[in-house]
Design goal:
Elements lengths: L2 H10 L5 H13 L17 E2 L5 E5 L7 H4 L7 H12 L20 E5 L12 H17 L5 E5 L1 H11 L19 E4 L2 E6 L4 H4 L6 H21 L3
Parallel strand pairs: 2-3, 2-4, 4-6
Antiparallel strand pairs: 1-3, 5-6
């Protein structure tokens, strides 16, 4: 078993946050009517993708009836439909949609994960819950040795990424901390953070986030890693 698999096992077994444990298990038991016949995952959701990823896509947390149901982050909900379509258009995914684990989706040069691993009530983790999960992100980024770009989906993910990099030895996060915005870009050590509005229905239905907007951010991520690979063939 490799280290990423060991981390996955540790994440899936986590019960550090009583409120999140109670909520994720309640949702998995009660279920949504549309998914009444599904067996819900109801546990923390690990990241997934290409272990040789140069780009990490960081979200907020699994959706109650998305990742908390399917066992894979951004899988089985509208936000994931939007994200995977964009990853496909920009060359990071082999297909434009993923509704469940084992449906053939493969990511290339990309790893998708979340700042908080359990579905939170009202999609709002507390600061304490975020901080209990941060060590998992720190470890994950450390194991993704080729990762150079972190695409932060929303302000929560942006803040979590900055807090994560603050825990890396030798990295100096700027003070005051860079502010989130769509298209925001900041270089911190070997990482470049890119800001992108979260592909939630609240943003995509209102036009706050368009396909062209998310594609530009992901294309920028791809371009940055290509530049790095050209400068540093190793």
């Amino acid at each position: 078993m490799n280290q990423l698999q060991e981390l996955e096992r540790e994440i899936v077994a986590c019960r550090r946050c009583p409120r999140l444990v109670a909520w994720r298990e309640h949702v998995a038991e009660v279920k949504r009517a549309a998914f009444a016949g599904d067996e819900y995952w109801g546990r923390p959701v690990p990241g997934f993708g290409d272990p040789l990823a140069t780009v990490v896509v960081l979200g907020l947390a699994p959706a109650a009836h998305g990742g908390n149901r399917t066992g894979r982050v951004f899988t089985g909900d509208r936000s994931g439909d939007w994200l995977f379509a964009a990853l496909h258009r920009t060359g990071f995914a082999n297909q434009p949609m993923s509704r469940r684990r084992g449906d053939g989706l493969k990511l290339a040069r990309c790893w998708v994960t979340a700042a908080v691993r359990c579905a939170p009530p009202a999609n709002r983790p507390t600061p304490a819950e975020r901080d209990r999960c941060l060590p998992y992100v720190v470890t994950e980024l450390g194991l993704l040795a080729r990762a150079r770009v972190i695409v932060c989906l929303g302000g929560f993910a942006w803040d979590a990424a900055l807090r994560t990099l603050d825990r890396f030895d030798g990295l100096a996060v700027p003070r005051p901390r860079p502010r989130f915005g769509h298209g925001a870009e900041v270089e911190i050590g070997r990482f470049t953070l890119l800001g992108c509005y979260h592909p939630s229905q609240q943003n995509t239905f209102t036009g706050r986030l368009t396909e062209a907007m998310i594609d530009r951010v992901l294309s920028r991520a791809s371009g940055l890693t290509t530049e790095i690979a050209f400068m540093d063939p190793e």
